[in-house]
Write a structure and sequence with these properties.
Elements: H1 10-27, H2 30-113
Helix pairs in contact: 1-2
Length: about 110
C-alpha cells in the first residue's frame, strides 16, 4: 500500500505466539501441547498480518488527513523564506550587475569629459 511504511511484524508475532504457547501449556493436556504449539506458530503470523493489513487503510487515511490539514502551515513559512531568498539573490545579482554597469558607464562619461 503506497504511503504506508512496511513494518517488521516478527516481534509482534513472536510475542503473540509465546503468549499463546503459555496458555496452551496451562490448559491443554501434555500429549496435545506440541501439536497445538506447532499449529499456533503457523497460524499466528497470518492472523497478525491480516489484523495489521486491515488497519493500514485507516492508518493511510489518517496520515492523508493530517497531512492535508498540516501542510499549509508547514509550507507557508518555507515558501516565504524561499521567496525572500530568491528576491534577495535577484536583487544582489541583477540589480548589482546593473548598478555596476551604470557606474562604469558614468565613469567612462566623466573620463571622456575630462
Amino acid at each position: 500500500m503506497a504511503g504506508v511504511p512496511d513494518v517488521d511484524l516478527t516481534p509482534l508475532t513472536t510475542a503473540i505466539t509465546k503468549i499463546a504457547e503459555d496458555v496452551v501449556r496451562d490448559t491443554v493436556p501434555s500429549l496435545l501441547t506440541q501439536q497445538v504449539e506447532e499449529s499456533l506458530k503457523k497460524m499466528v503470523p497470518g492472523l497478525v498480518e491480516t489484523a495489521v493489513s486491515e488497519e493500514k487503510v485507516l492508518i493511510k487515511e489518517t496520515v492523508q488527513e493530517v497531512t492535508r490539514k498540516a501542510l499549509p502551515d508547514v509550507l507557508k513559512p518555507l515558501v516565504e523564506r524561499l521567496a525572500a531568498e530568491i528576491i534577495e539573490k535577484v536583487a544582489r545579482d541583477v540589480v548589482g550587475s546593473k548598478a555596476e554597469a551604470e557606474v562604469k558607464k558614468e565613469i567612462e562619461r566623466l573620463t571622456a569629459e575630462a
